Amino acid sequence: MTKRHVSLPAEADEGVTAFIEQVDARLSSDEDTCEVVRETLVDLFGDRDAYERWQAGGDVTPAERVRLQGYDPCNATLESEYYAEKDEDRYTRSKHLQWLWRQFDATPMADNIAFALRFRQMLANHLFADAGDDLRLFKGITFTYGHNIEIGDNTVVHDDVHLDDRGKLTIGDRVSISDSAHVYSHDHDVVDQTHVDNYHTIIDDDARVTYDSMISAGCRVGRNAVVGAKATVQGDVPDHHIAVGSPARSIRVKPGWESVADPVEDKLTNRADERRVEFDLPDDLDVFDEFQRDLTPPDGVDAPDAE
């Protein structure tokens, strides 16, 4: 089944185009990104009068002040900001752009598909390491950083998908990722939860990752492969295969592709160690253990190495 073409009325399209081009031009300039994000959100939320009154020294309630301060990403923190291994030089701008993306998705305009897809495509061009053409990025998508994502042409990512790029995430051309899927590029040690390993996770051209499924860190979903709904992928899905279940296993080759596909096997092969993304932490990093757990094993039992 194909889709039909839908467009905004000419006047509405003119307004959308002018707004997106203005924000794009400002983000492409030497202007401070924090200021661009703040000014854009103030206007998107219709708070210009209150913001200017506050800036002029006028009276605002504590709630108004918090709201008006919140348009500025420099007045906020994101979860990924606390990660010890993050790239400080790249993170600052990525954080500002993430803040604009997330707050835009909290506006009524985020449900206007013809507007929102074009706006997120523009933001992806600035945020991602590489953003292809004709992306369809729907509402509620979240990232770790954004700047470790490479995504190809004509790919669709549906509502409430999490793209974890704490390591590296590569998504090919014409990929479809359905609602509520989670794609990871980092993992935690089973004994010491604070020990993190990062990986390169790959979803190859023409693959489909369907509803509420999870792709574990370091896995590859092969070209033209399908991951079934609610599947938990813990190894590589071969090209042209259909994988389902938790843990996922290949159950068949897509009809018509048998002559070029590998045979179906009992389990998926995990090659995450080949895709490990190494990182170094600064010697002077001030770290803390948020859990403060005692990881000492019972007497006479040796603790495994954190690998």
TrEMBL record:
Keywords: Acyltransferase, Transferase. Signal peptide: none annotated. Belongs to the transferase hexapeptide repeat family. One of its GO terms (molecular function) is O-acyltransferase activity. The keyword Acyltransferase applies. The keyword Transferase applies. It comes from Halobaculum saliterrae. It comes from the Archaea. One of its GO terms (cellular component) is cytosol. This is Acyltransferase. InterPro entries: Hexapeptide_acetyltransf, Trimer_LpxA-like_sf. The lineage of its organism: Archaea, Methanobacteriati, Methanobacteriota, Stenosarchaea group, Halobacteria.
